[in-house]
TrEMBL record:
Protein name: VOC family protein
One Pfam entry name: Glyoxalase_6
SUPFAM superfamilies: Glyoxalase/Bleomycin resistance protein/Dihydroxybiphenyl dioxygenase
Residue ranges occupied by any VOC domain in the UniProt entry: 11-124
Species of the source: Streptomyces albidochromogenes
InterPro entries: Glyas_Bleomycin-R_OHBP_Dase, Glyoxalase_6, VOC_core
Length: 128
């Protein structure tokens, strides 16, 4: 192994998500995070960013939300907020739903985004 591993070092440039309506999902997460929609791609996709992190959301006509918790998840987001109760209320107003199954106890809350995909919210600084 060489001392210069620059060629083997990478960075995540963007994460991509699929749902029933990519643009609506981008709007949801932009509002949830206080970010901006930075680019749209026709009627089927949109990108959001805070200037450092970027997510792109695509429409997939054959998208099927996982039947959580029965189905294993391939990927999900953990979002942190200073006021989790206020964030939960705001996210539900934006279109999230709260499933009955809540395995996080007092540590995190599971919500489903408008496409039915689970994501978690917790207090900023809470790693578990």
């Amino acid at each position: 192994m060489t001392e210069n591993n620059a060629a083997a070092t990478g960075a995540v440039k963007c994460a991509a998500f699929w749902g029933h309506d990519g643009k609506a999902l981008a709007d949801f997460y932009a509002a949830a995070l206080g970010w901006k929609v930075t680019q749209t791609f026709g009627d089927t996709a949109a990108m959001i960013s805070d200037g450092a992190t970027t997510y792109v959301f695509y429409t997939a006509e054959s998208f099927k939300a996982p039947n959580w918790p029965e189905d294993e998840l391939v990927f999900h987001l953990d979002l942190a907020f200073a006021d989790v109760e206020a964030a939960e209320q705001r996210l539900v107003e934006l279109g999230a739903t709260k499933p009955a199954h809540q395995p996080g106890g007092k540590h995190w809350t599971v919500l489903l985004d408008p496409s039915g995909q689970p994501f978690c919210i917790s207090a900023a600084g809470n790693n578990g």
